[in-house]
Amino acid sequence: MNTPTLAPLRPQVEAFLSSALPLWFKEGLDSAQGMFVEALSFDGQPLRNLPRRARVQARQLYALGLAHERGEFVGSAQNHAALMECIMKSVTCSYGAPGGGFYTLVSAEGQVLNSERVLYDQAFYLMALAWLYRVTCKASYRDAAERLWIFIETLRDPNSGGFQISDALKPGPRQQNPHMHLFEACLLCAELLGKVPWMARADELYTLLQIRFLDTATGPQPFLREFFTADWQPDPVSGDHLDPGHHYEWTWLLSRYRVLSGAAVPELPLLYTTARTWGTDRTGLAYDEILPQGRELRSTKRLWVQCEVLKGHLAYWRWNGDLEALERAQHVLQSILTHYLTPQGTWFDQLSRDCKNISKNSPSSTLYHLYVALNEALPVLAATP
Ligand SMILES: O=P(O)(O)OC[C@H]1O[C@@H](O)[C@@H](O)[C@@H](O)[C@@H]1O
Fold first, then answer.
1. pLDDT at 1 (0 to 100)
2. Is the pTM of this model over 0.90?
3. Which of 63, 195, 216, 268 supports an S-S bond with 222, CB 3.0-4.6 Å?
4. What is the tens place of the pLDDT at every residue in 281-308?
5. Number of domains, the chain
6. Domain span including residue 240
7. Ligand 1: which of 252, 304, 370 to mutate, most ligand atoms within 8 Å of CB?
8. How far apart are alpha carbons 67 and 61 in whole angstroms?
9. Which residues form a coiled coil (predicted)?
10. CATH number of residue 80's parent domain
């Protein structure tokens, strides 16, 4: 097999980023409030009145941090860093809870609409703080990440392990997804803040993947479960729901964990194979949600899922050099460019089974997925002839 070449896609990726980044960092920012808006219209107008999720603010800070790393500054490097600090300050005023952690939802005027502190959001704030530390070198951000971890510890279940979904549901059902992002946060903190104590925290979350999330007993094909009861039994209603995007996302995370920890991560090919064989259609796009053996559940296809597919193929290719995985990466990147991205720098966020747009606007929360995936792909686009 010839080495698949992704290089022809590079100009399109670069053209997209050069429209998207200024758009999302300028039009996407409500500078009067110091907060990002929840979504843009397809032609790039900010939808200012929509309530704003905490995770959106943290994910946009992540994207700003990555942009700084890549030299794609808003203004100069100093302006870019000052912008990040300014946003973190106003976001902390609006979402920061006095007892630690960040609330879930704030109105366009800055009033708290939902004061629950969900584990999922805290993971993204750890990552935002790690990027702020990286960009500014100020110890206060590293300390803030540590204080946030102390809040996260209050969600811990000392009896059956793992963390509660939020401070409002104790004891409550458990979910795989926030733990995955907490694992992601620990890896980023290990990279940007230091391995101690973050790798030990990542190790614990990796163990949860092995003993709780990954079902290796039900059939010949292991798969990742999403929803559990308070004592970690599969949820009686949704315990069989599978998220192919999360299988690909873990594939990518395990490849990073392997580099940082030296662990063998035998789960990586298992997760990748399940996602490919059960959760991906003939065109190479993955479904939003499925049942075991690939039975249909929600055959829509969100953009974030395809970003994880791209990262998963690249991670698998890096893991064992499989050129077919590189070819699949090429195909899914082409499909992302063709079906999802607009020349204005916005996106159609969700397609029907037959690849028709069914989203009403471009949610800000997807930029992080897209930018991280393209950042993974760009060195490959540059390196292949
Ligand atoms: O729905 P938004 O907020 O855009 O998030 C998109 C998706 O991000 C992924 O990483 C997962 O955590 C999904 O469960 C989530 O739905």
1. 66
2. yes
3. 216
4. 999 999 999 999 999 999 999 999 999 9
5. 1
6. 7-383
7. 304
8. 10
9. none
10. 1.50.10.10
